[in-house]
Write a structure and sequence with these properties.
This protein is mainly alpha-helical. It is built from eleven helices and no strands. The chain has helices at about 1-10, 25-45, 55-65, 70-75, 80-90, 100-120, 120-140, 155-175, 185-200, 205-220, 225-235. α6 (about 100-120) packs across α7. The protein is globular, with a radius of gyration of 21 Å. It starts with a helix and ends with a helix.
Length: about 240
């Protein structure tokens, strides 16, 4: 029995890793998030940078986090102010705590690996950036709170949007109900509503939804086949 089972095992390919690697672009994003958080955490604990390091996190949030006031200033004509435009992306690399960053990093690696393998590294990075900007725009347009936006979750929700679109395509090819593709985002929104009811609402969810929509839209362009394939599938309906 053991011999027959062993015979069915595939022979290892010389030089091939037994574990599929994380796409380099996702690993680079993860390392950037983890590196910044490590420096800020060490500074906050007094283990690096001296006494002034305790205020590093607050200082960086003041300089690089996003808020509705940033969008307002841009709409008032400050298009050339790069310090304002940078905030539409830079907020994604700052987090409020180690736990905040760890959860973001874990989700980024998991979702980024799947999306990166299906769409390619350049397309995955484009989805993440588009979702990050889309999340900021949604937050700036609809959030009434003055609380700043920071953290990579809008970009991650954009990867969820891309994951949803790719699953939607796969379900269509197998003839299954395509609405199943939206189970993940539906479950996450239900959890957010539950936490909001228990602990109070956080306007972050506005950016998350904006990121999801932007990521879903970007995936229709950057997924294999792009707009041409999407138009063909819609006409077939």
């Amino acid at each position: 029995m053991a011999r027959s089972f062993q015979k069915r095992l595939p022979e290892p390919v010389p030089g091939e890793s037994p574990v599929n690697p994380v796409p380099a672009v996702i690993l680079a994003l993860f390392l950037a998030i983890a590196g910044i958080e490590a420096i800020l955490s060490l500074g906050g604990m007094g283990l690096a940078g001296g006494p002034a390091a305790v205020g590093w996190r607050v200082g960086l949030l003041e300089r690089f986090a996003f808020s509705p006031a940033v969008l307002e200033q841009v709409l008032q004509g400050h298009w050339g102010d790069m310090s304002l435009l940078l905030r539409f992306v830079s907020y994604a690399f700052l987090h409020g705590s180690v736990t905040h960053a760890l959860f973001a990093g874990a989700l980024l690696l998991a979702l980024g690996k799947f999306v990166g393998e299906e769409m390619g590294q350049g397309a995955t990075l484009a989805v993440f950036i588009a979702a990050t900007i889309g999340g900021a725009l949604a937050f700036g347009a609809f959030a009434v709170d003055t609380q700043p936006l920071f953290g990579s979750y809008p970009g991650i929700y954009g990867l969820i949007g891309a994951f949803t679109y790719l699953l939607w395509l796969r379900l269509g090819r197998t003839g299954e109900n395509r609405l199943k593709a939206f189970r993940l985002i539906g479950g996450l929104l239900a959890v957010q509503l539950l936490f909001g009811a228990l602990f109070g609402a956080n306007p972050q969810w506005i950016a998350d939804i904006g990121g999801f929509v932007a990521g879903l839209a970007a995936a229709t362009v950057f997924a294999p086949g792009g707009w041409a394939a999407l138009r063909q599938r819609l006409r077939a309906r």
